[in-house]
Amino acid sequence: MALFKIFILLCLVGAGLLLQQSGVVDFEGFIGLARQYTDHWWLIALLITVQTVLFTFALTGSSMVWVTAALFPPFTSTLMLAAGTTLGALTAYYFSASLSGEWARKVEGSRIFRMLKNEGGFFNLFALRIMPGFPHSIINYSAGILKLQPAVFVSATLTASTVKSYVYSALIYRATTPDALEQGTGVATVWPLLVLSLFILLVTVVKRYLHIK
User: Fold this and answer.
1) Residue-wise over 134-154: b if at least 16 C-beta within 10 A, else e?
2) Residue 78: CB atoms within 10 Å
3) Angle at 61 between CA 115 and CA 188, to 5 degrees
4) Measured distance CA(210)–CA(213) in Å, rounded
5) Measured between alpha carbons, how far is residue 171 from residues 73, 78, 87, 177, 205 in Å?
6) How many Å separate Cα 34 from the centre of its chain?
7) Structure confidence at residue 63 as a pLDDT band (50, 70, 90)
8) pTM, 2 dp
């Protein structure tokens, strides 16, 4: 499943480049216009807030990577995504205490909940977070219901989201720059793909270790 999601990501990026190159869609013009507003502090605060709110209510906060990474350089995008992911995880952690009985039972019935109940240390949390396409809401709510140590929960979330966000940010930002196609396939261009490949390998190893199907 992780390999399939990475494949879909690469296909979407490739399709975008082809549409831009063919002139069907002027992604370059749209992104260029949007990037004129990236020096406004309120845009940074807005995007972080939106991601935080999405994660709080178990929505797809991870989708914000497509907006943030396309507008901001990788380093800035990474800081924003890591902040939004961590803040959203923390608010979801505490919000889970107010879940209704039905919602709580759904979370408690998941395999991730049972695994974290037995071992909710830094490594397991980090490994789950860094998996491409993994549902963050299950991790956040499970950790809150189980009352895992907040310091461990936050540190694992921040570390994993920083590493993961930088890889995606570098790939997406490079793909949306005007000279993306002209830069060829040098090391600087393909290294995010190499790192993503290592992610896939890591996912395979971690799944075997955690016995996740």
Assistant:
1) bebbbbbbbbbbbebeeebbb
2) 23
3) 95
4) 9
5) 11, 12, 24, 10, 24
6) 21
7) confident
8) 0.71
